[in-house]
Design brief:
The chain is an alpha/beta fold and 168 residues long. The chain is 34% helix and 23% strand. Strand 5, helix 6 and strand 6 form a beta-alpha-beta unit. The N and C termini lie far apart (32 Å).
């Protein structure tokens, strides 16, 4: 069985860190922690930072890390959405991009997070968390049913309760 590679941009942020820690414990995926600023990853727990045969790899280039990944997880501030999307657009084509937007969505936005990200990454298979992972049920939305199910299954293995809200 080929091991899927999951890249996390924003592993130093709350939800990204929680997912990274749970994925390391699950030990079923190759894990890449992405940050263009090495200092940001220093806030991760020390045991998570240690490189070992089964531990995560740290990559200081979003584009390179996303190129290697089968699934890309983004836990980034709203103000960085367009910048990050520009950097990964060409390497996210036909890949699952799971966006954790529940705790940073622009409250003044007139379009949904799914529409916003589909405009930014038109060739990616987008799955959006519509609420924080700390909620009793994590609501997922996206246009690709298979990608929604893949992310829901991963979240279940990690101990979350995903709810597929709709398929746009």
């Amino acid at each position: 069985m080929v091991q899927e590679t999951i890249a996390i941009a924003g592993a130093e942020r709350k939800s990204g860190s929680i997912i990274a820690q749970k994925l390391v414990r699950l030990n079923q995926h190759r894990l890449l922690l992405l940050s263009e600023d090495e200092d940001q990853l220093k806030d991760l727990p020390e045991w998570l930072q240690q490189k070992s045969a089964s531990g995560p790899e740290q990559i200081n280039c979003l584009k390179d890390g996303c190129w290697e990944a089968d699934i890309i997880i983004l836990d980034i501030p709203f103000s960085s959405h367009a910048e990050v999307a520009e950097k990964i657009r060409e390497v996210s084509t036909q890949k699952i991009v799971f966006v954790l937007s529940g705790d940073g969505q622009d409250p003044l936005s007139t379009i949904s997070p799914v529409e916003e990200w589909q405009d930014l990454l038109p060739n990616a298979k987008l799955v959006i968390a519509l609420n924080p992972l700390s909620s009793p049920g994590t609501m997922l939305s996206g246009a690709d049913g298979e990608s929604l199910n893949i992310i829901a299954e991963i979240l279940k293995k990690l101990g979350f309760e995903p709810i597929i809200k709709n398929q746009k």
